[in-house]
Each structure stands twice: as C-alpha cells, then as structure tokens.
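Replying to the earlier thread about multi-chain prediction with a worked example.

Input:
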Amino acid sequence: MTLTQQAEAPRTAAAVEGRRRAPVRLGTTGIIYLALVAILVIGTVLVAADGDNLLAERNIVDMLTRSSVLGFIAIGQTLVILCRSLDLSVGYVAALSSLVGATTMDGDPARVPLGIAAALGVAAAVGLVNGLVITKLKVNAFIATLGVALIIRGYLDTEYKGPAGSVPDSFQNFGYTRIGVVPLSTAVMLAVAVAGIVLLRRTRTGYRMFAVGGNDEVARLSGLRTDRTVIVAHVLCSMTAGAAGLLLASRFSTGVAAQIYSAGYDLDSIAAVVLGGTLLMGGRGGIAGTIAGVLILAVLDTVFRLLQIDPFFRDVLRGAIIIVAVALYARRQIDRHAVRARFGKHGRAAGGQDAPRPVIPEARA
Amino acid sequence: MSHPATSPARTNRSAAVGRSALDLFAGGSGTVFALLIVVLVAITFLNPSFAEPPSLMAFLRNAAPLIVLAIGQYFVIVSGEFDLSVGSLVGAQVVIAAKLIDGEESRTWGVIALMLVFGLLVGLVNGLVTTLLRVPSFITTLGMLLILAGAVRLWTGGAPTGALSDSFRQWGRTGIDMPVVRQLPYALLIAIALGVAAVLLMRAPYGRTLLATGDNPTAAAFAGVRVWRVRTLAFVLSSLMATLAAILIGGFAGVSAQVGQGLEFTAITAVVLGGVVLGGGRGWVVAAMAGALTYQALERLFTQLDMPTTARPALQGVIIIAAVAYAARSRGHRPPPPAPAETANDPVPERVG
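Result:
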C-alpha cells in the first residue's frame, strides 16, 4: 500500500489511529475492526453521559450473547455470498432445526448427541436442496432460497402449532454457561468462525469459493467444479443456521417456529456480512469481517437499549447506519478497484481476510 | 422471445409472431401465460361461478395493487437492481394517508399529492444512494425498509390512527357501474392504464436504455448512457408505483400496522414468475404483470381447494421454483435470436458486394 493511498483513507479519528498503528497496509477487515472500536468508544461516551457503563460486565455479556445467534448464521451466509449466491432461508432452517433438535432430545440427556446430529443433518439436507436447485435447475439463488423458505414455513406452520419438544438441562447449559465474561455459545461461535477462516484461507474448497464468486465462468474454464463448490457453501451455510437453531432451542428450552423465523435473521445476516466488507457480488471478503459486522450490530443494540431509545427508532438508526457504512466501504473500493491482486506471491488466495497478512505489499512492491 | 428489444429486425416480426404460439409453452416470458391459463381454467373447473363477469371483476380488483407493484419492481429488476423497500413504503403511505386525511373529504387530493412527492423522494434516495454512493441496492433498499417501517411506527406509536376519506377509498373499492360486469373497478382501469404506459415507456428510448443498462452497464456507459440517471429513474418509478398501489390497497383493505408487510417479496416473486431475469437486461413488462396476476390466481386456487392456510406457503414455494426452473431450462436451449437477424439486415455487405 502506498502513502498516497493511505492519505486517501477517511479522515476519521479511527483512521488516524489506524495509520499510526499499521505500517503495513490497512485492509478492509482492519477498517471494520477500527469502526467497531470507534463505535464502542462513541457508545461508551454516550452511555457514560447517561450515567451508565457500557463496558460493565453485564453489558459486555449482553453484547456477546446477542452476537452469538446472528454470528452463526452470518458465518454461513458469508460463505454463500462469497460464491456470489445468497440464502434467504436461514431463519426458517434455524426454526426447523430448533424443533427437530428439541423433539429428538425430548428431555433425555442421553439423546443430546442424537438431537444435535438430527438437527444439523436436516439443516444440511435443506442446504443440499438449496444448492442443487440453484446449480442444477439454474434457479436464481434469491428465488430458490425464498421458495425453499416458503416450503419450510408451510411445513412448520402445518406440523407444529406451538412450541414442541424439550431440551434437557445439560443442553440448556449451551445457552447459559459463561466462561468469564464470554458466554459458551459465543465461544463456540468464534471457534466456528476460526474454522471458517481456516477453510477459506488454507483449503482448496475455500480458494474455490473465492474463484467461483469472483468469476464463475473463468473458474469453470479453469477446470473447477463450480456447481460442487456452490453446493458445499450452501450445505455449510444451512448447517451454521442449524447450529443457531440449536442455540435458540437451548435458550428457549424448547423448539419454536414463528418466534425464530419472523425475527428477520435472513436480512440481518446479509446486512452483517456486507457490513463486514464482503462484496455482495461475491469473490471478495471474509469471515473475520463478518464477525466484526455482527459485533457492530450487537454493540448498537446494546447501546440503544441502555440509552432507552424507542425500539422503533432503533430500526431507523440501524437502517441508516448500515447504508452509511456500506457507502463508506464502496468509496474505498472505487479508489482502488480492479488493481488489487487477488493472489499473492506464492499463489495463495489473498482476496480474503487481507488485513493482517503482510504478503500483499511484498507482492505489489 | 417476443420482447421488442430482443428482436430488432422488424422484417422478422412475422416469423416472431408465428413462433410466439410455440413460445407459450416453451419457457421464457411465455411460461407465465401458460401457467396463468392453466390456473384460471383449474379455478373455473372447481367453481364455475368464478368465470362470471362480476366475480372475475372482483378478482381483478384484488389483483390490481400487486400488478401495479409488479410494474414498478419490473423497472428496477430489469435495470439490474432490487427494490426491497416497496412493502414498507406501501405501509408507510397508507398510514400517512390515514393520519393526514383523518376522515376529512377536503384533504384527499392534497394528501394524495403529498404521498406522490414522498414516494418520489424515497425513490430518489434509493436511486442516488445506489448509483452515486455505490451501495448495493439490496442493502440500500433493505436499509430503507428498516427506516420506513421504524419511522412510521415511531410516528404513530405502533397503532395507526386517523381514517381515510370516502373519495380516497373509492379508487381501491368501487368502480364504474356497468350492465354486464355490474361494476368495472377503478383499480383495474388504473392497473391497465399504468400497464399501457409502461409498455409505451419500454418502447421509448428510455425503456431501451434501461434494458441495455441492465444487460451490461459498462457497455451502456460506453455507448453514452448516463447509467446513474437511468437507474435512479427506475427507482423513482418503482416508488411511485408503490405509492399508487398504496392508494389502491388502502382503499380496499383499510388501515392497519401490518399493511404492506412482505409485499416486497411478493412483488419480486411475481416479476420473476413473469420470466424477468434477476440481474437485469431481460424480460417483458406485460409478462411481469401476468406474473402478478398468476400469483393472485394461485392464491385463489388454494382457497378454492380448501387447502389449510398453513400449507399454502409450501405449495407456493414449489410452484415458484418449478416455474423459474422451467423458464431457465428453456432459455438455456434457445439459440441466440438476434445474431441471424443482424447479418440479414446489415446493409453494408450488400452494397459492397
């Protein structure tokens, strides 16, 4: 990254701080984490002015707890969006797997592993259907996943009139245990995020996802089985949504449908992914950014709650913040659009989480 | 395909007409008309009184708002974008109308004018943020959805107040009394008028530019199209159509906090059912309107079949996926139509040879 490009970075307090801290280039992911820090600082000041402490233990726990469900879903959504696809069925998959998990467990601690397996298996099957409809029947992802969502909704509304099944106490711990200030569910979510980052940066499947999202036709002509890559992404996405469903089941201590699928996880997860710097058109981005996006949304929610802002006004602010944030990234992407090398010196994919790695400056120097 | 812009050779039109009969069941834009006919026949078979003019008119009146919304969404989708804000815009407009009119007849026209201005502004913001600030339209309009929904509930405190005047409600409710059909709904007339206007617009330079932009914005920009202006206008048209749909829906269904919820997905589904390709550049506005009509007809068919309300979404999902998959399959097998027409009409080689 050259000095002139650094000078073009937005002249906010966060960017100034970033310039001092980072002698190497500051990637999109770095910017997002700086934005997260900036929002935390602003939030702390605002909350302090209101006579409360945002960084008190219970508030941090609140923020992390809020982020875990959306975090799971957004991790999967990132993989799908990287492949230039989209999944609008995640909320319904979460509802379905919460019910499948809770009814399979049926209050029996011995059946917990079976319940988890059943829920994730059903979720994976839905993901497989999504992927097959998109790749083999060539239905646009928007319509395909919307259609599958409607199908699941019809099934749920017909089969389950209310909460069903019950979760044994041992599994409820998943929703409520904490390690220090970090809830167990958040820790698991972060572990899944790390696994996802490794998948994207260190495995062939991950590289293929970037390739397919970057240019499907070129990837196909290069000999990649593009269909298979998209299907894998959809299966993984549904499985993380299934994990979110299990977490919700453990919090509700039973399986529920309408409460989960009407919570807007589908659009929220897409917003978090895009807020995290992943291009909606695919091929660029990563899970580290997505986690920052999820945390930003969680911090905002907590700040709004502490400031006792009208819940309806929260929606307005949320909408405005999402648009403004994405507009700011878009400016950066215009500044330095196509010249970025997608692959580093050693043939490694560098289009992903590019912030912490010094490979790119070497490659460009 | 029977679309005007995809068959530039006017001499080939007769051949195109001959082919269009086959097109009906061959996928693309044609699929939706075939599906519509099948569904309508099925409803009539189950309930012969459906085909009587009065009940047909009632059905069309119910379908009119979605048709209007589909026209608006068509402009945005064919330009390569999305508009997720129409549902909450409809809700906002209905609530605004009720609150400002508050039952006073004299305020009706003033408030309708104000609603149109508000719709114009929303569309302008959607369009400018998407084009000039380069925010993906999915995010822009999603943000707009949150903002509008939140703002309206904030303004009304969660429960809409006020009332609509009769002269406001007549557009969605009543019609011109006539002998055969008993009543020709205004809503239907408005939908037809807007449909005709949309067809004319798509044949005008703007429409062709819009299609070119959706097909390949870079090429369109090199050809001298001001892409941002074309797309922004598409968003404005979509918001204006949503405003008109809100007038019809408000008149027909009345005021509640739930008005318009989920309509954005219904409108997009209707347009896609009409064979319009998400991503832009291909599709016919009349087919999009037929898609909306088909969607309503399907709902009616489910009612007729006494299907439990809870199971309906499932069947809807299956039909939508099947229809789009069918259209996609046929599109893949068709040879590119403009190529032979282009060479046959190209005057240069003939003069030289």
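Chain A has one domain: 3-364.

Feel free to reuse this layout for your own posts.
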